[in-house]
Predict the structure.
Amino acid sequence: MKVSAEARTAGAWTPARDLPVAGNGQHRAPDVEPSWVRGDCRSFVARPDTGRSTDNLRIGFTVWKPGGGFCDRSCRHCSAATASVRQAVGVPHSRFSCSFRRMIVADHYLVTGAAGFIGSHLCERLLADGHHVRGVDRFSPYYDRAAKEANLALSRTCDTFELLEADLAKTDMGALLADVDGVFHLAAQPGVRASWGEGFVDYVHDNVVATQKLLEALCGQRIPLVLASSSSVYGDAENLPVSEVGAGLLPVSPYGLTKLAIEHLARIYVAQHGVHAVALRYFTVYGPRQRPDMAFTRFVRAALAGETLRILGDGEQSRDFSFVADVVEATIAALGAPAGRVYNIGGGEPTTLNAVLATIAGLVDRPVTVAREAQALGDVRHTWADTTRARRELGWAPRTCLRDGLAAQVAWLSSGEQSPALNAFDPVTAS
Ligand SMILES: NC(=O)c1ccc[n+]([C@@H]2O[C@H](COP(=O)([O-])OP(=O)(O)OC[C@H]3O[C@@H](n4cnc5c(N)ncnc54)[C@H](O)[C@@H]3O)[C@@H](O)[C@H]2O)c1
């Protein structure tokens, strides 16, 4: 695994919790100036001159345009950059806000499944916030490696990112976890349909065995872990919206069973070994880079090509769709949650597939033709997340409505680009 020499000399792997704390309880600000920038205002991280740092801190400056200056839109990156630069040129420490303090402290995170749909967006978001990211991915053949390489393209341009190609179930966990402040565990064999029959063995390996190895390695480490579970653990829930408390956990697919198994593993390691683990039950995630096997990607591709869309079932099944940027936001917020907690992460309201199709037809501006096929085994009829707990305890709420999120996904799929930054389609600012 490669950690750049520059990163080492800059003390880049100093954990945030060891940083000096000023009298008012906030981390002391280092004396630094931004010395180089790269990327554009939508994409990347600029760093300060660490040579002048007195505290061995690294500061992540989100974004300047390559030629200098801020972007002319007041996107969240530019506001963050403005705040960063103000700090660098000497705004008194007493005026730092809490959120700003969080932003300037560079932590080091391990992201498993870094080349995947959600993992790659998470890596970019952490890098853009000035953190260091160690990604691990085995490039499982569930879908094309080229798509995963494309997902990683932007992160790979940042030298605060490193990627290890390895199978979590087999790799040396000690090296992977060295100097890490937090772990986001997204690696998995996803998808319901392939989890039947011969395919199940991959689900046991990638989901259960790999997670158990990670939990085992975290014993006695005091490193917080957020792990990706799924709405599939509920199966066909009787009462909707479904909440974390009181709902039956009766998955109807082997995939759902493996996700429930990792939640139980986490619970056991929290109780017996003091591992600090939190599980998030993601509800159908969509947006740019969505996996090629998932419904929206297949629908939009077919609609753009003027082909017939294959719908499994009558189209009246509904899902609580969650936009990927919202899911990333929740995932980061969950790192500070109490050990053993489980949270639903959903978009907030259910939508039928037929309604999705109508929205897609509007976005591609042409009628879509549909062929209906039998509903797949293991697909639940309806999902709908009660997100009260996440809203209350994580201070998180979904921000992206389905139409805006779908517009971002349509834009991605029509652009022909393999892996645009999510912000290139930021529906919050673009709509
Ligand atoms: N996408 C969704 O709608 C959704 C919904 C609920 C839960 N989830 C969960 O979120 C996580 C991410 O899902 P995604 O849609 O981004 O999937 P993805 O397939 O795009 O990403 C998963 C990545 O994990 C890697 N991986 C698998 N096994 C590995 C192993 N043993 N070692 C190292 N890397 C390994 C794969 O190569 C892949 O790149 C998964 O845990 C999934 O179960 C996703």
